[in-house]
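Minutes, methods subgroup
Present: GH (chair), OT, SY

1. OT presented the first of two proteins processed in the latest run. Sequence and structure tokens recorded below as shown on screen.
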Amino acid sequence: MLLFLRYNLVAAALAKKLSVKSYVIVLLVLFVILIFVQWQGTARNLGFTEDTFEQVDISDLKGNEMFTTSLPGMMIFPDQIPFLDQPFPGAGALYAIPKSIYWFVIGPIPRALWPSKPIDPLWKKYNSIVTGRSEDDYEGTTISRGAIGSAYFRYGVLGMIQIAFLYGWLLQNVEIGLRFAADRPLALITILGLATFMFRSFRDLNYNILYPLMYSLLVFVIFTVIYNAFFGGSRHHSGQSQ
């Protein structure tokens, strides 16, 4: 993404519509990444050896189960199991956004401080559905529901549509942020981190990889403020001294 932005910004400065170089270089980088991802997918249970590298098939894509991971639930919800956050018909339309905010807010609270902190019921339920294990035996299981399934199994169709709008709003802000953060490194890194989180969220809307980004940003901001206070000075004073 950084390479793509850099070359296109240079092209824009030269009054060109697009940078052919950006597409060529980025496609080459992505191809190399694809090879390593395929190797990792082939060797994850075997180890990285010359033999496993020779078994890599670029056309046999690994990790595409994210497109089919919702299917077991689609056969069960709501005919056999009711939507988990829809106590009455249509309630998902009322619960979807508030419940998403709720899980986001309580996520960082350590269980040591809140021993009875709720565990995502869909996580337990879906792990049980796919693995056949008890809902209480969920340690070590990370079965994905997919972006669509994760919302649908909780809130039904109306709630799922709201979560889709939430995804769209977040992705819109990623694009807007990239446009305004081109000359601000910390802001650009943060926006790219949010973009990574959104990419990961097509597995399901799990905030666990968003929290480290937020903590890191907070630490960077505090460090920057302290550094400027002792060494950088304010822009106003810097302008006067010039």
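2. SY then presented the second protein from the same run.
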Amino acid sequence: MKKKLLLLLLPFMLNAESLKSLLEFADRANNLIVAKDLQTQSKTSELDSSKSDLYPTVDIGAYYKRDDKPNVILPGTTYSGYAKIGYDVYVGGRKESTIEQKKGALKSSQFDKKATKNSIELAIVQDFYNIKSKEASLSAREEASKAVKAQLTRMEEFLKASLATQDDVDRLQSAYDSNVYVIESLKFGILSLKKSLELKVGKHIESLDASIFMKSESMAQELDNIRALRATKASVMDRAKIIESYYYPQIRVEDTYSLYGYMDKPNLSGFSIKQVSNQNQLLMTLNMRLYDFGTLSESKRSALLQADALGEEIKYKTKEQHLQQELALQRIVTSKLNIKSARSALKSAKSALITITKKYNSGIVDNVVYLDALTARTESQATYKTALNNLELSYALYYYYNADNLKEYLHE
């Protein structure tokens, strides 16, 4: 019998997904994580672009010009090709500040990606153990339903033999129907959670394997979402420096070499006027903002205020992390006590059900006492399994708020 049962369960066992495998797959397939990765790549390209801005620029061009009424000393048609090299000698430190600003934006994007990944992993862990708890409740209910069904069948036979009343049958039928409803409700709850889990992981899930966390101490680190805020604040401060740089002198040097060609060359008294065939032009410009009705100063003030706002958000998030770390430790203590209590209750409920079932079969107690004992055993069995899963969730929250990698603490 055991071999047949194992053969029936084998396909489900082979397709069962461990929590660690789900987390690893989600890192690659979750759309939100992939989106954050693409955003990080975009920020990397922006930084590379800013670094390239430190070097000279080279441009080439050409033009064609035709005058319907040309000057007597200028040709009617001129065409030219040119090459120009330009370099910003001094721009008030704007380019350097832009590079630092882009570095900060890239760091913020990288930390934001990690924070998103960790948040999704925690949500996967919560769905995983919530499903496990509901499956435990479903298993207990199905077991109880079988017991009630057996007693209902037995009592119907007694009714036919006039050894029981219709009230006895009706009570058992009501209990059985109630169990059927609860079982279907639990199945729907499991289905809903499983669909939510599939969305987060990024693939279809048949069944879930057992998974537990290591029970060890962890060194607290700053959460990645706080690090992202710090990097964003630094980026905003550099943006304020960029704005300020426009008040400093802007010095640029350009060198342009041009080649010219002409048609309709003019002549004066039978003599052609010589035209320039090539030209090298050196241009140096100096520009400085003297007054702009406060446009730049207000933009800088806006950036500094935004940085101050981020600073306050960092303080709040830091306090929140410390609070959650304390709660996570207390949650572990409470979960362990709950397991101890639930284990004792389950042991008592099992023993009581065995005794009351014997008395019920012997007609010493009525079906009300039996159903109460069966309900107590069912609920205590589900409560114990849920308590075990809550302990795993408590450790997951503890590691999460200590900024640890959840996958590294899984036993698999």
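Chair's summary of item 2: Strands lie at 16-17, 57-66, 77-90, 207-208, 212-213, 250-263, 267-268, 271-272, 278-287, 410-411.
Next meeting: continue with the remaining queue.
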